[in-house]
Amino acid sequence: MDHNAASLQRPRGFRPYGESGPGGQESHEPSVSKVAHTLTACCRCRQRKTRCDAGLPRCGPCERSNTDCEYFDTAKGTKISRSYVIHLQDRVRALEAELGRLTQEDDEPQDAEVMVRGAGLVRFTENDDSRFLGPSSGIAMTRLVMELAKQNTGTKSIKEVVPDTKARQIKDRFTNESSKPTSKVYPLISNVAAEKLPTPDLMERLVENFHQKAQYMLPTLHEPSFRRVVKDVYAGSLDPYNNFAVRMVVAVSMQKLDIKWAGLADSYYLAALPYLEAAIRPMNLQTLQCFALIAQYSLVTSTRTASYWVVGMASRLCQQLGITSEATIAHSESGVRLSPLEVDMRRRLFWIITSMELGLAHSLGRPSAFGTTPDHINVGFFEAVDDRYITPDGVTPGSPSSIKKLIAIHFFKMRLLQAEIRRQLYLKKRPEPDNDQHPWFEAMEAKLERWRQSSPNNDEGSGLSQIWFNGRYNTMIVFLYRPSPQVPEPSLRAAQKCFEASRFNIYMQRKQIRTKSVDLTWVFTQSLFMALNTVLWTLSYPDIRKEHPRMEVETHLNTVLEAIFLASERWPGVESALELYDDLVKACLKAYDGNSETSYVVSSPSNRPAPASPSEVTTPPPLSSPAMALKSLSPTHSGQDKSPSFGFVIDNPQNPQSHKQTVQAGSAPLIPDDRQTFTTAPQRHGIHQQHFHHPTAAYEDTSFDPNSVYNTLPSSIPGLQHWITSNAIPMAATSQTIPFSMAEEQNYNLALMGNQYSQYLQAPYEPQQPVRTLNHEEQIELMNTLEMDGLQDLEDLMDQSARFFSSPGSTG
To answer: Over the chain, what is the mean pLDDT?
Structure first.
């Protein structure tokens, strides 16, 4: 550590151990002259009225009389031994030494497994609490890109790549962007609730837009039933669920229009909130629909409700209502057989909430609320027919299949495949697979390919066509082959797959933004940064640089940076990240300037024993929290691995009657049953029969069928009393929990987009400056414009989306 910097940190009055004293002589004792003015006369000298010196641990008179030397601390109102000063000096020396280790870069080569597996508590903004991000969140790719930038520039710190002056400029720019979430004309959020509903004609178009843009992926509502709800509300119904649902549908539908309507959409979200408490009080299926609508809204707007909290409550309610098991899904809590319509809606909401839960768990690297040791799902999919054929009396015989429902089911199958990849590669360290040539990768890629080939051909204008599903397929290919805790050093073949998958997605997503054929959710924006980081990371392989010349790579990078710039209109703060990546991209491209055979791949020691859990990578001390008691569990499939990576029992001290909620990442894959009318590729023989020889592979030694969705799910957790909405565990990030410079990652990456990450979590993002919001006059102006011109805009939007996703070669 720099001497001058260190001297600014230490208290006045003593010299740290080992520094030279007067006359150049090394002093092993603190200088008395430096400490004397900080000490008061001891109690014995005061009582005897004798002269007291500043000796430690005792003054001269006390030392000669061999008595205790104590002074009176007026702040604490008690006597304290002078030896306590020595203890404080030793403590300060230890802290200075630790600070030196944190701020001084290590000259030794980085360990890939430590960098990739290292998850921890990250503070996204200066005033935010520490939040947990696990390996699957993708923060490891940022570390690897920073490491590549440092290697190419010959620097030891990312601060040398992005100077402090520019970092401050980026931070100031981020603050300015975050404090002004506005479109070109109107703010993105509102502070006044909409006083009245849209006109009936506009309402009909907005409901139709919701059915076309939201219901295809998440069929939350039974459409004929909801149309009756709309009629009842316009007829003066005071039912809280009806009023809440109608206003939330308007809000979600408007958010899926042009960005200029975002503030107006937020007005209807505010208008729905007064009905929320009464709407969710019954804790029934309609409550789940309310939670699902809130979650849908929060995923497409940069403020308001934290989706991680809402989806977490919905997950617990699913378990309470008994819809997480095929054995109980068709019966009420009292055992009464439910109508076919209600059973179908229970199935839908289970898969919707499960999809949201799995998606958030992956994006944040957190355990899933539905994750248990068996980790099986046995709930069947809902009816794949149009809603008009599903009635309380049953499903109309001979009803044709609905593309809308088939698309939703196909999307849910993708979530299960994504969860299987995460479970195998991003959670607990397993004996196998130990490299990406292992048969498991071939089997997993074959499942992904069959899923891709069975994508519905016709999207009916929803935008969820084969091209869109190809983009999701490529995203999962990156998840599969990028550096992971299980395989921290991928092969060249894996890097090639990641490069090609990211290249395809870059051009597809850029065109999606330009044509306004996609919702600019935060997940979508994250995927842009993932593609950017992935392309930069692959440049560490010399063969990638040979196969793809610098000019070609620069074209790809400029395209994704343009896409991020376009996405910044919806997500304040994103544009400032471009300033950071401007320097990072330049630094990473310097790999082309050196020896073409040089490899910049971060490797791991081949003979280092594999850690059993993320906490063992850097052997941190135990961390505790006064808010919760965490106790590790042992998996029921006990083998040589005794402690799961993310297994905890959460005891709620405020609710002693509640059951202990098990949150355990299991090992068995989740693969749905192709019971719907999809055209699938022929199954490759022998893939599922291979044995991978590790004790945690539950799909080898149990009766679990990897091709079936009908398996066992965990028992429900009764009781939803005393919900704790602020259940984050406050713990400070330390050098033991995070094996890299936290200051670098906070200041140069995560803090730039901290408000969006905070949206997933318990506390909303609080801007540092007053935020301009939509006022009443602007709200009326927007509403009049939408009622006069919005009908044609809605038709044009739907036609434009249909043309884009049905046109060939739309990824260029």
So the answer is: 72
